[in-house]
Amino acid sequence: MKTAIGIDVGGTNIKGIILNSEGEILKQHFVPTNDDGEGKWRETIRDVVQYLKSIHNEPIELIGLSCPGFANAENSCISYMPGRLAGVEHFQWETYFGTKTFVVNDAHAALIAEATFGEIRGYKNAILLTLGTGVGGGLLINGELYQGLSQMAGHFGHLSINPHDDELSLLGMPGSLEYALGNYSIKRRSSGRFLSTHELVQGYLENDPFASWLWLDSIRKLGLTIASFANVLSPEIIVLAGGITKADAALFTPLNAFLDVYEFRPKTKQTLLKPAKFSDLAGAVGAAAFAFGKVKS
């Protein structure tokens, strides 16, 4: 297979690309997801696939689809996704498209994109954290994506960093990293002062005392989590992806300062920390790369 279609099903947009086996994006096409609760978004995805096939000069016989939720063991569908994308659970995409299709969790897809064509390329053991509306991620172990029992490995946002907090995550964890850092909780965490992480970071950059305290408290918790990963898994590299990484120095400068305090560095060795190469297209690139890998295996 020389080319594959990669589809990333996001809450806002459906992103479609044609990717070749060298990681070059040949075509791309974005449309609104329009998750109306009735499953019409599936027709939108089919339209994206048909459009991409129509504008390519050669037949495309492989599709990778990145989606929130837990993929099944065969990576043919999403087996569990509560709360949104009605009809996604157990939906068989290969039958729907009439084309060989593999399905993967969206954060896992981002890891695959970085491992195949991005910052993780060449490493065998790595962690990717996605920092956005929530917090997710993926694990690379011995050069392979580790999906774990029920394909749910990498839900790092549901680590409990404050068990005394009554706020429960989607998976039932009190005081989760996702609550401490995710964009979805910023209004509640800031007592209504900020409606987005972007607004919070802007307040931090303007030296607002409350914004500075709240932002740095979140980054401290992220630093503790990353240092814990280093202790438990000892990866070669940890990559951060997602919209919150667009804060750039406002994120990485204090984060590295906290890691200087918390990370154990025997003989001055430390875990490499980098921002991801891919941003909005990571899910689509990773989905296509995952499909390439499945065909080869």
From TrEMBL:
Protein name, as recorded: ROK family protein
Family to which the UniProt record says this protein belongs: Belongs to the ROK (NagC/XylR) family.
Protein origin, superkingdom: Bacteria
InterPro entries cross-referenced by the UniProt entry: ATPase_NBD, ROK, ROK_cs
Pfam families tied to this protein: ROK (PF00480)
PANTHER family, sorted: BIFUNCTIONAL UDP-N-ACETYLGLUCOSAMINE 2-EPIMERASE_N-ACETYLMANNOSAMINE KINASE (PTHR18964:SF149), ROK (REPRESSOR, ORF, KINASE) FAMILY (PTHR18964)
